[in-house]
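Thread: "does anyone have the structure for this chain?"

Original post by V.I.:
We have the sequence but no experimental structure in hand. Need at least a predicted one for the grant figures.
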Amino acid sequence: MTVHEDEEQESVPQKKKPLSDAEKRKKKIEPGSLMKAVIRPGGGESTPSDGDQVIYHCTVRTLDGVVVESTRSECGGKGTPIRHVLGKSKMILGLFEGIPTMLKAEVAMFKMKPELHYGEADCPLTFPDSFPREDELHFEIEMLDFFKVKVINEGISAKTSEGKEILLCSQGEPYFFTFGKSESTEVFLKEAPISAPKGLEMGIGTMTRGEKAVVYVTNQYITQSPLMPIIEGVEEVWFEIELVHFIQVRDMLGDGCLIKRRIHDGRGDFPMDCPLHDSLLCIHYKGMLLNEGKTVFYNTRVDNNGQPLEFGSGEGLVPKGLEMCVRLMLPGEIALVTCPPDYAYDKFPRPANVPEGAHIQWEIELLCFEMPKDWTGLNFKAIMDEADKIRGTGNRLFKEGKFELAKAKYEKMLREFNHVNPLDGEEGKVFLNARNSLHLNVAACYMKMGECRKSIEACNKG
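Reply from O.Q.:
Generated one for you, tokens below.
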């Protein structure tokens, strides 16, 4: 090869590697948009780098010194420091650039233009509407600690802060956790219930479906569990978790007897879009005995010519346990309800094929519900007609011995009457008679319930 050919080959330009996402973000930093002042020097010579877990306190202030948000309890925060893994966790651009310059125990103030915090275009973090994202702000950072961590890519793993692996589950069936207000967290593996460490439960409780997260658990929350051994002298264990799916479990009574499990999500937001108030409900349900064969004793899709059941809540038309659970369902939701006898059919007309004292399981689908008619804009006659319907339901419940439900209907009418302004004359007399009669109805319910003092108080109102 000639010298000329060598020179020609050397002159061919080399292809540049495409910029990484981190490098693209750093390109946004303009001179003067991020400034640092050291308030307290740190110790040592090392600074954090990619793959390090950084633990720090953060207080955000306006340039006038007003605290916007803080992790410190003395500044209105929870007192819990922030944990991030550099190169893995989502961070605002100013801290993404500034934290790697800090030493352990250092306290520094970062002055950031809006584009360096939440005002950054395509900022990867969410922020509350009240956050002053368009303002220049001070971020006071105290670097508590940093150290190397290994983030595992698959499955459920646990490691100590020294990197010793103590749990690995990356293949086969996932673990199943059950969270409930009055139930302990459980993990199911090959049909065997296993209690989970408290810290792991707390961490998973903050996750959303499909989220992958590293959960750091300090030793005071590493409770005894067959899921993993207790290792003496370990200050912290971290878990990498992928939340594949979750099912809402609610202990309705707080004693573990009436349990509602959501097996298919509904539409809307809980609990705002639930039929909490008396409504016309439309459901399909399948009733089963809690015996070995899960005997089906009724199915609306089969025994009701495929038609759903429609009923008014608060009217005693279905077993109490069933209605309590339906009131906490969203339209389209399917739930599995386990119910004790006294909330099922021991205190309700019992189907012929349901034995006395039977524990019941219902599979319920809430198709839709219709809220009570709004009285706004109705004339006086229409209002009184609606009142007669509700009062009629209360009278039926009273005759059936369901005094608590009857009282609720009468009291509902009295509350509605507080917003009615009848005219003078005949309308006024009709309204006053109806209201006085309702107070006497409430008094009769209290008398039947054995609450004489309240019955007298209700009589005096009438």
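V.I.: this helps a lot. Residues 1-5, 150-157, 179-194 have pLDDT under 50 and may be disordered.
O.Q.: and The CA atoms of residues 31 and 113 lie 11 Å apart.
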